[in-house]
Amino acid sequence: MTIQNWDKRLGVYLVMDIGDVNGQSALAIAQAAIAGGVDVIQLREKKAPLHDVIETGRKLCKLCRDHGVLFIVNDRVDVALLLEADGVHVGQDDLPADEARRLVGTDMFIGVSASSMEEAQRALEQGADYLGVGAIYATNSKSDAGDPVTPQLIADIRAITSVPLVGIGGITVDNCTDVMEHGADGVAVISAIVGAPDPKAAAALLKRRIAAYI
Amino acid sequence: MTIQNWDKRLGVYLVMDIGDVNGQSALAIAQAAIAGGVDVIQLREKKAPLHDVIETGRKLCKLCRDHGVLFIVNDRVDVALLLEADGVHVGQDDLPADEARRLVGTDMFIGVSASSMEEAQRALEQGADYLGVGAIYATNSKSDAGDPVTPQLIADIRAITSVPLVGIGGITVDNCTDVMEHGADGVAVISAIVGAPDPKAAAALLKRRIAAYI
Question: CA of A114 to nearest chain B CA: how many angstroms apart?
Fold first, then answer.
């Protein structure tokens, strides 16, 4: 899948970096997650040298393309362009969506993180194609995620827009249905898949739990 | 001046961020430095939100353009493209020069940081238009600058290439001529101008000291 035939489904949305976890390479984790049914992979790498990000990112992008999984790059529009990603995801301190649009045109979609109605409204005004809403619950995966917003924020934003919404932050198999019931089009997770003993099984279970809502 | 009529002179090369220093705004510091005669301004901002970087960066870029000063953006090729900078400068952990070239084409020049012959050779192979060589002397301005390389590295690199070389790291009015005598085409400074009581006077003195070498 690419943006040209994107069905607006976000489903199970995996956020990951290029590092090994539990002795598994990023590529192996991505393969397992795809086998388990993830719909989207976002590469969010804040620390590694960019030549490593480019090298592993190209492999991840090809893997996603080969399996009909959307591939999104966090923050760096330049890296997204080089990897020919399907989309770029920007946070509140990254490039604003309208500036990012000047670089990617309509070839790539743009997701924006929002942790309040104000941020959501601004992102929509600036042309966001989807919103990442959170942190829904408390999380240890992102040190600057702020206080949890609760799933209610998804319902509030749902009331003002039809763009896809993905909840993020502290989402697990136990609370993912609550996120979907508040109007989300998908759930974004890091540790629930990457940190699981069996990433494929973890992805598959998440997918099954949210299946009724997408 | 832009890359189309760049005379390959680097001269006094100011590296700065968008923050206030000693009660002076970045724009005021840049204005003073330009009045003092700087040839190049590189915007190197690692912390501020990108919407602020874009906003101040556009003003800095216009100021440089109006005064025939080259304007270069550090690290972020996406920001360099948005600001329509003259060039982008990449470190060893940033995008490699050949990847950056795929994004900027020949509209923008690409500088690369090198702290060894190996790094210099690789940067030249990857199409660097100039090299930033250092840290020449010990510096407090860049926490990851590594051990000083001494001005001899400039002479060593000078022997293998004719691309412009700018020394960086701990350069002051007292040691700048030594850097130039080893074959540099310019001296890059942060605190020697930004941290000076009178940035204009500091820039002018540096300019006078290196005038005989360019």
Answer: 15
